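input
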Amino acid sequence: MKYIIYARKSSEDRSKQIQSIDDQVKALKEFAKSRSLTIVDVLTEEKTAKEPGVRPVFTSMLERILAGEAQGILVWKEDRIARNLQEGGLVIHLLQKAVIQEIRTPDAVHVPTDSLYMLTLALCGAAQYSIDLSKNVKRGLKSKLDKGWMPGSAPLGYLNTKTEARGDNYIIKDPDRFPLLRKAWDLMLTGNYTADEVRNKLNNEWGFRTRKGKKKGSKPISRSTIYRILTNRFYVGQITYQLGGRKSLKRGEKPLLIPGNHDPMVTKEEFDHVQLLLGRNGKPRPNRYEYAYTGMIRCGECGGLISATFKEKILKTKNERATYTLYYCIKARKNPDVCMQGLYTNAHTLESQIVEQLEKLSIAPEFVDWALAILAEQSEQEIDAEAKLQATHAQAVESAKKQLENLTRLRIQEILDDEEYAREKTRLKNELTDLELKRAQTGMPTKTWRELTQQAFIFARDAKDAFLSGDAEVKKSVISGIGLNWRLKDHALNFDLVEWLIPLSENKVAFTKTSPTFEPTINGSTKRQKEAFTSCCPELRE
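output
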């Protein structure tokens, strides 16, 4: 009799499989040698046997047995053959008809003339084990989701705890990677970087590496991973998980969003803003040269993008090579009939205009020091406003919960059918998740208005110096910080001043006005400084 060795393990259970494929094959070969069995082939497969029709190697083995190449199967245990009743029944049928003349394990032999009870019991037991295991796993996953924790391995930037009992582990911040990924989100939020540029900074400048696992890890972050991070709602404090897998969803149905107990990395508003940026700049083109203002300025005549080019010229008088960065309208260069802005604008011309605007916004360091002391008085108002907002969110959450309760009553009274009930329940649960997330983020340790104001004043004080001494990235950050809707026409640069800088621009006189009262180092009177500030700049005082 000729035998085929068949060794299998479930790909979903690699780390927990008691007997690996290599160990199975080794043990079965030694067993065959000790029993003088003739082995015609060794077949291995890493596929689950829970579902029929998903194991090509198993199907091929049965076809070869039907063709007469072998008459017996040698396996480690009966459950290696099948864990579902359809394929298990087929094997039993072939054994009963003597197509398969023997199924042998190191512990048992099954032949057509014997009672099929033991083999049937073993295969049915394997199938029942899979069913019970699936139920237990789903119950454990649901329990973890109900507690607000995502099952499985934590995404990059987070870690699974290892000290708790099985099922009680939770997710914490990765102290090494969480701060770096938060910086990556900050870069994306500026609108000045593509996802690939952020990835390059993570890998090359900040030395980011993935977690070290048993077989992989400790590698630079890949392009697909950075996009997966920037689109994963886990980082905003939500869990997207479907217990039965996405295949269990009906057509048009979306998985529920579950509020997580882990610390969010970004707010919902920040997450939504990045999604808009990714939609616009999903496939950026690489640049050979780094230009500070490309992608930020449009033509003031046709609205087309302003691009840049790099030119070199030999200065005969000095016998030196000079380099120039020139900006131009793409539409005008391609078709002069569409736009008349066909001339180049030197980068120095643009920068001189930007510096002129920065000078209009710059304020004295002394003003920054005492102005922030005055604005700090408003902190109590911030606390009151946050308390009111918390109360508003709490009311909205309670309202959504009551709607869910009423929905259940309507279903019990059979006013709604199953489809209407499921659809409305999903909508309300998603709405409730969103409201609970907003309520949680209201109390998050985010930057207060005082910190933001401090940054505004410091920016106005230091922006000019940073722009003059910085590289292309710094220059791009500065101009994105002061203006929106940048336009270039006839070599003149125009823009809309960002809202938070308008008071500084309109009250420039107040910041530069000479007054003895505005000299804190001389007078040292906080009260007189406040009075002078109020009378000279009431808009900012409000």
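quick obs: Confidence is low (pLDDT under 50) at residues 12-17, 280-288, 514-542.
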